[in-house]
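Problem 12. The chain below contains 334 residues. Write out its predicted structure in token notation.
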Amino acid sequence: ISGSLGDESCILHSHILVVYPDVSGLAAIAPNSKVLVVGSGPISVLASKTAALKGYTTLLVTSTPDLARELLWLDGPLEDAKEDLPKNPLLLDPSQDEDVATFEKEAINCQGVIVAYDADRVLSDSLLELILPTKKQTKVQRVTLMSRHLNGKANGPLSAAAKVAANKDVFAFNKQIEQQYRDYEKRVKERCVQVSADLVIIRAGTLKGGGPGSIEISQSRDSTQTPTLTRAYYAKVIQKDLVNWQLLFDCDTQGVVLTPGDTAQGPGFRAVFTSTSPNAEPGDSGRVGVAQALVRSLALPNAGGAEFGVNTASARQPPSEDDWAAQFANVLPS
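Solution.
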């Protein structure tokens, strides 16, 4: 599958100076608007559920719709569902002609776009053209893009070792990965300017958790305000963990700290130990917190053009509305 001359941003291509107007801060996507979610893995599914429960009419592009339905709504197998499942988010399978036709029709009518990949992947040029087309009129006003912490602080070779030996979801920073993401951000920024949309970059490190935690924890949480994936996440995605540290993370590390720009710390020499830690650790980002940041940034008028990182904090309850307001005040212009 948008200033005055003083605020203009310039990109130099060879000897040609191309001047792009600053479109930041123009859009705020209200509930009931249409939002498209693209990406892969649990983070994209969770972002779509969060958007839907925040009142957005949400479309999720997924090549695994049956698994997505279980992660969204069911603790058990899809075939055990005893009632019709919610149609928001609407799941679109790119292998199905009917879903492709729906995507082509609806994508240009979405006011918001969320892009989030679990793995170290980025949007292809062809998919970028589909979601932010330059040859068709699009209604997109804001894009919230999950990228990565790229400052290189306290990252090193031990992160790569931890990714191989302990946790495939570890974000192992290196110069090649940095260049991949910087090129990616540049492409998306330029395309947003072309279609008069603004962009919010949400930076993440090693993604952890995303499920409901223990039964006690899940019963104490307002699942409409802070949705999670179902218990199928532990059974279908985690699978092989003998001690489910991800479930412990979802119980004990529900707090969120936002850091301005690209300033978050990494795990450094402790990477092997932090890679499967259920505690709040440098370089980690909870999937629930990242999904919340991606969706909440759609509606904030002053978020356009911003970038910030999502980090973890010890807490047995998710952030309140006041907590989120205080965190955003630390990273967004007043």
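Discussion. The first strand starts at residue 9 and ends at 13. Students who got a different answer should revisit the alignment rule from Section 12.3.
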